[in-house]
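Recall the central idea of this unit: under ordinary conditions, the amino acid sequence of a chain determines the structure it adopts. In this exercise we apply that idea directly, starting from the sequence alone.
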Amino acid sequence: FLERTKEVMQLLQPRVGVDILVYTPAEFERLARERAFVRDEIVGKGKVLYERGA
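Accordingly, the structure predicted from this sequence is:
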């Protein structure tokens, strides 16, 4: 998780403060079960920037 997030931050080089979270589908499912508030924030306010096809 942290290494993927670091790679994306280096690629994007944002000029403003942003929260970039890079989860695999399995990681997100686990997060959704364990922390409903975080899941709701991500689903309600987050944006998928890239989704690899199966």
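The chain has a mean pLDDT of 82.
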